[in-house]
Amino acid sequence: LGFSSIFTGLNFIATVHALRAPGMTFFRMPLFVWALYATSVIQVLATPVLGITLLLLIAEKVLRIGIFDPAIGGDPILFQHFFWFYSHPAVYIMIVPGFGVISDLISTFSRKAIFGYRAIAMSSIGIAIVGFLVWGHHMFTSGQSELAEHDLLGPDLPYRDPDGHQDPELGCHALQGLDRAADTRCGTRWASCGCSSIGGLTGLYLATMSLDLHLHDTYFVVAHFHYVMMGGTMFAFIGGLHYWWPKITGRMYSEKLGNMACLLAFIGFNMTFMSQFFLGVAGHAASLLQLPAQYEPLHQVLDDWFVYVLGFGFLLTAICLLSSLKSGAQAGDNPWGGTTLEWQTPSPPPLENFVDPPVVTAGPYDRGTAASH
Ligand SMILES: [Cu+2]
After folding, report:
1. Could you tell me the distance, in angstroms and rounded to a whole number, from the CA of residue 135 to the centre of ligand 1?
2. 158 — alpha (psi -120 to 50), left (phi > 0) or beta?
3. Fewest beta carbons less than 10 Å away: which of 8, 22, 242, 311?
């Protein structure tokens, strides 16, 4: 699994460097490609650390060398360091492609070039680099040294900047786009309903040492994580699936059904996971053997009811997309009026993607006279 992750990263990096279309300079690449490039860098650098950790674990078990197990002279905190040195960047392997999807969708559906294109491209790279310096924010309660505590906290708040830079800018674009009701299609609804901002901002609370002492290992963390992974990655992924579905399959799905599914999932998701912030602040531990009575009402109303609304939203999404394979209208080459290269080839694309290799003469989101609506 590790090697597949590393080789996938290498594949994308090599492709970006060596196989760009004629005229496709780095700053003409779509933000989705920038995002995958940054993700690939993380994959190549972080995954070996997980491999090394597993090898050390094997060495400890087989050769009985004390590395992590205190009974034979090891240090369990060392295991946490290895784990989080991989796992903090690993979260970005999951969310950064989502940021890229959101950029592309919002540009297409708002009919506008991305404001701050270079800043967003560079902030993807910034996340990939600085993400390696802040793993200690998961370990404030572990009893790591005071030096580590401060050194590893120090870079954390400025590091939120590349992360935070993307959300407000994309939010503005979404709003610009939403004022043209006709342009808000399913894909962009999914993408803008994504709650990665709430996930990112609640990370600020957890990265603040004094607050984290209270919130560590509570439902607040569970909620934060779900807002990043589900509200961020998953919603963006489904948004991307709607966006590129006609390109992949050559069929259009029902806009009405898709919007209904999105609304249900959005309500279900927020009602389910928002409650966990409140439970966490009230002291609900992340894992409990028995549920104390004071947490039960919120659990029952929200987790036990709205989680089904969420599930039904996803089910409806699957029905919407899959039924289009049978009954959907034919999609043209460019049903959304997209400006990036994939919209200049038939849907579904032929073998090798293009009949003739395309020549790029403008930025990814430039709307020349030909592309404008
Ligand atoms: Cu982290």
Report:
1. 5
2. alpha
3. 22
